[in-house]
Amino acid sequence: MPDKTIGNPVSWSAQRLAGMGRGLGSAVEGIGSHEMTRPQVNSIGTGDIRAALRQGARDFAALRSDVIIGVALYPVIGFVLAVWAFNAGQVHLLFPLVAGFPLVGPVAAVGLYEMSRRREAGEPADWGAALAALTGRVLGPVLALSALLAVIFVVWLYAAHAIWAATLGPESYGGLLDFLRATLTTRDGWTMILAGTGVGFVFAGVVLCLALVSFPMLIDRPVGVPVALATSLAVVRRNPRAAATWGLVVAVSLLLGMIPLFAGLILVLPILGHATWHLYRRAVTWPDRGMASER
Question: Has this prediction a pTM greater than 0.90?
Fold first, then answer.
């Protein structure tokens, strides 16, 4: 017969704290690389990118209701940031915020990688199952890499603000049209555009190298952040043209998805997220590929 006795509040609290401590310890431990095996890095091309996009679209079609509910928050976040930029007199940060979304896009798609992994393995692939898997040794590395990309995004915003201050700033603008007029019709405005584009290209290149396959790999294997980053860099080094093409596809797709008040992200983000998983599967081969992934 089950014991229905109400436990001592002190002992109950101690048990909960101990459980939280074990979970936190597992998450922190997972950041390092205990599994040092690295996969074989494959050569990929535009054909692989097209195939990954097709597979991503199929995943989206199969999981549409779950996926749309999960990613609907991101257009709302984008719209809120845009409203803040207008109301706070920070119109000059509107484009850097939009252009910087690809810097944190891999973080937004973490749940989608897990859903594609589970669908590929024939496991339940709804959001509940995907989020339940993001614990312990998986969660720690993912959060660590997410924090790195968040820092890069913040540094990008500071850089964009500094470029504006050195060219058009510190003028105030009555609205977006005034800012666009000053940007497109003055020498300082074009200097800001060219400098911002160049610096933004550098930031985007850094994130592409770091995140091309690292997030899907952390979802797939308990390799830790160092091995995941090293493998991502190796994939880019072996496939610079394919990596650049993928980066262009992601940037253009996200930009188009943001144009209708960020609503297009509800369609674009899931397809790109699922496609990233399939590109990862094409870019690397594990010695035991075909077997169930280690968790």
Answer: no
